[in-house]
Amino acid sequence: FDVYGIPIIGINNVWKGVLLVFHDITEIKKLEVMRKDFVANVSHELKTPVTSIKGFSETLLDGAMNNQDTLEAFLSIINKESERMQSLIQDLLDFSKIEQQEFKLNIQDFDLFELIKEVITMLNKKAKSKDIRLELEFQREELYIQGDHDRLKQVFINLISNAILYTPPGGYVFVSLFEFERTVKIHVKDSGVGIKQEEIPRIFERFYRVDRARSRDSGGTGLGLAIVKHLVEAHHGNISVRSTLGEGSEFIIELHKYMN
Ligand code: ADP
Predict the structure, then answer these.
(1) Helix, strand, or coil here: 23?
(2) Which of 15, 95, 113, 126 is the most exposed place for a label (fewest CB within 10 A)?
(3) Does 10 have pLDDT greater than 60?
(4) Closest ligand 1 atom, CA of 215?
């Protein structure tokens, strides 16, 4: 608590008492700690790929590029590391735009099934490399909705990447789509580490990361789900989570088919 007093003085300078103001600063303090953590995380996340890009490019320039195999291997590392940086920077930019309420949705009609297929194709390599079964299920051929195609793509990239990230090798990530009269639901279910019941309401907070030591290895900033929630809510949709520690998690997104 932050406490301060204000003397209350009546007419003729008669001392009437003191008004005590108690300020609950636990939330502010927590946010401050999270922000500091966030800066440390972001710096670390940027430093790692830059160090690696610098090291590999220097080695190439020092002569290693004369060997075709080395050249290819190193370039592919450099490429991967720059992609990592790019997505982190994108997260930061999106987040600051969202915080300043600067972003506008670009609403169009598009096939959500097609979009999710694209995301799955994009993340399949990552899932395979961890021996994770990544599957998509939908009973029909197409699912047209209104929304911001690119922003929603980002939502599913974030959710499915998280599912792959927090699932140990040998597990699965199942994505299923359900169509209703006016809404659609997308379930992203994994057989991963799960989330403690008491942590569930907090994972959508900006900068919040469960088990920092563990998540730091996995390379995140705690912004992904905060962005996801903002974007889903900007579409007047909602997101919920069911999870059991040690068994897995299921994120459910509900969206309206038509924006008005
Ligand atoms: P980041 O992944 O960058 O840490 P996010 O905002 O995407 O940040 O997620 C916040 C936290 O929620 C993560 O640190 C992680 O602990 C937890 N989390 C998110 N998705 C999952 C999941 N599918 N399974 C288990 N934990 C998850």
Answers:
(1) strand
(2) 15
(3) yes
(4) 14
Structure tokens belonging to residue 30: 């927590």
User: Can you tell me which residue has the tokens 């915080």?
Assistant: 99
Decide whether any atom of ligand 1 lies within 6 Å of the 87 Cβ.
Answer: no
146 lines ligand 1 (CB under 6 A): no
Query: What's CA 103's distance to the chain center, in Å?
Result: 17
| ipTM metric | 0.97
Rounded-to-integer distance, Cα 219 and Cα 236, Å: 30
Whole-model pTM: value is 0.76
What are the start-end ranges of the H helices in the chain? 26-61, 68-99, 112-129, 149-165, 212-218, 224-234
Q: Find the radius of gyration of the CA atoms of the chain.
A: 24
Residue 45 Rama label (left phi>0; alpha psi -120 to 50; beta): alpha
3 state DSSP class of 13: helix
**Ligand 1 in contact with 132 (CB < 6 A)?**
no
CA distances from 75 to 6, 89, 149 (A): 65, 21, 32
Whether ligand 1 lies within 6 angstroms of the CB of 224 is answered as: yes
- Ligand 1 centre to CA of 66 (Å) is 42
DSSP 222: S
Q: Is the pLDDT of residue 216 over 50?
A: no
Q: How far apart are the first and last CA of the chain?
A: 46
> Can you read off the two tokens belonging to residue 102?
């600067």
Is the minimum distance from the CB of 188 to ligand 1 under 6 angstroms? Answer: no
Residue that the structure tokens 């007093």 belong to: 5
